[in-house]
Design brief:
Layout lengths: L11 H17 L5 E5 L5 E6 L7 H14 L4 H10 L18 E6 L2 E9 L3 H12 L4
Antiparallel strand pairs: 1-2, 1-4, 3-4
Helix pairs in contact: 1-4
Length: 138
């Protein structure tokens, strides 16, 4: 299966909408998160950090979003490959590949228009919030 093609970059309005949905999911669950939305080139479009989010999550959220956009796949794919060992350890040699769940490509009409990255809690919770944000893009 071929990866999705890149499309026109996500708008600021859509990036804000995705980030708001992701942070609303975090707030509902009493998690503190940082969220980043990038365009297909990995350029930051929108960023926000909830109060009391660990400081390291700021850069991690951006890195997860960039990884998902540039490699056209969820960062969980890298996490799973690395966890599998063997040939999956090659992930460690891919510059910019973040092997931690929480980064997702954003698709509109089947094309990658950007990506969202969340960081601040467990990788599973980061992924759950990223999915909430990604689901707003059509």
């Amino acid at each position: 299966m071929l990866p999705n093609a890149y499309g026109q970059a996500i708008s600021l309005e859509s990036a804000r909408k995705a980030a708001a949905a992701a942070l609303a999911e975090a707030a509902r669950n009493h998690w503190t998160m940082a969220v980043a939305v990038v365009d297909p080139n990995g350029t930051l479009i929108y960023y926000e950090k909830m109060d009391n989010t660990q400081l390291g999550s700021a850069n991690v959220a951006v890195a997860k979003a960039r990884s998902a956009a540039l490699f056209k796949r969820p960062t969980k794919a890298f996490q799973d490959a690395l966890a599998g060992g063997g040939a999956g350890l090659r992930v460690m040699a891919l510059e910019g590949a973040v092997p931690v769940e929480g980064g997702l490509p954003l698709l509109a009409d089947g094309k990658i228009v950007g990506a969202i990255g969340l960081s601040g809690d467990t990788s599973e919770h980061d992924g759950q919030c990223a999915q909430a944000g990604a689901s707003t893009i059509k």
